[in-house]
Amino acid sequence: METIIYKELKMTEINVALFARFNRYQEVKKCWRKENEQWVLKDIAFTEQWGPAEYEYLVKCLKNTIKTGGTVIGAFHNNVLVGFTSVENQFFGSKKEYLQLSCIHSSYESRGMGIGKNLFSLACKKAKDMGAKKLYISTHSSEESQAFYKAMGCVEAMEYNAKLVDEEPCDCQLEYRLL
């Protein structure tokens, strides 16, 4: 694959057309669930494939991220979006040290090329520059998603964000200490 260009996106660059060739597809076979204070890998199978409604909602969310002082970073190959991440600008936690990594996705055909790892690194740098001590991730509980975050050095969050847990009760709540 040729060079991937990473850049912070402006609100005017975020629209449904940006995602025209982005493929948010995932076949899930197993998911992590917390039972009796222990994490258990369970056989939970489904396929996730975003369509027009999901991309329209995503565009609203990403525009709001920028509007509220957060950041959205895109990864491009030949001017086509192949990955993106977003960091919110609302501090939370008992010490107000967390900022949320609200999105990180690589297009299906572009996975395994280090794009997610680079986006995660850029999101960490941005969150640290914004004054965060920790990055908070309410993330998909699939085996593959959790393997990615574990490889990045994420651990179970010391403090759970109740609002995010309520929104996605099956998500795993993770954190990454920004050094």
TrEMBL record:
Keyword ATP-binding: no
GO terms assigned for molecular function: acyltransferase activity, transferring groups other than amino-acyl groups
Alphabetical list of Pfam families matching this protein: Acetyltransf_1
N-acetyltransferase domain segment(s): 14-171
Entry-linked InterPro entries: Acyl_CoA_acyltransferase (IPR016181), GNAT_dom (IPR000182)
Keyword tags: Transferase
Protein name: Acetyltransferase (GNAT) domain-containing protein
Originating organism: Clostridium amylolyticum
